[in-house]
């Protein structure tokens, strides 16, 4: 399986690429090859062969390629010019990637923990599973927020077709995931014990039985309230390494936009987020 890994050649991304535990998790997911891509300014001079910028870009990209090759991955590198999210998603389509990985450093309270512009735009337009990997700054150094990427999964579902497609990711995660929390958020008006809530509990229980049969310890929760707020509250309680979501949920919008819940969770969560788009977009 092949992943497109977007890099801005920064120390932050290099810290993620150089974290062996993260790479082992991706290997257990099934990734054995990377297309490492950096998108440079459309400025003609910056991209001209032989320029200082070109040499520095190539040297930094080669250094990151060597980090991945050292761990046994097949790696191809790409230096492209243009709008980052378009070029990243375009490459993912061209190489038929199974996963796109984008680093996010938007953890500052002053930034309200919003994901960076490139990560947000890739998330909004990707037609392939996307891993938004959190990178934090500690003691003037960068490190991944959760190096065991898929060890603890919080899966949020509205039981839509897109959520069901996201659940299929457990086919790839089964050897990497030890624990899972399955969450459904019911509107505040629905009382505990109502037929709708009971139905949600039964459906979550069926999903839990499926995961338990694969050796994944699983719990379920039906929460009441605003979906984004309750998913993030569940994140605080469960402390997952990754939140798994289907993009767009029940939204009737036909444009290539994340549904509001998926976008808000991706922007505000402190965990990694794995977003799975609907099949029809591809």
From TrEMBL:
<feature type="domain" description="UspA">
    <location>
        <begin position="4"/>
        <end position="132"/>
    </location>
</feature>
<dbReference type="InterPro" id="IPR006016">
    <property type="entry name" value="UspA"/>
</dbReference>
<comment type="similarity">
    <text>Belongs to the universal stress protein A family.</text>
</comment>
<dbReference type="InterPro" id="IPR006015">
    <property type="entry name" value="Universal_stress_UspA"/>
</dbReference>
<feature type="domain" description="UspA">
    <location>
        <begin position="150"/>
        <end position="277"/>
    </location>
</feature>
<dbReference type="Pfam" id="PF00582">
    <property type="entry name" value="Usp"/>
</dbReference>
<protein>
    <submittedName>
        <fullName>Universal stress protein</fullName>
    </submittedName>
</protein>
<dbReference type="InterPro" id="IPR014729">
    <property type="entry name" value="Rossmann-like_a/b/a_fold"/>
</dbReference>
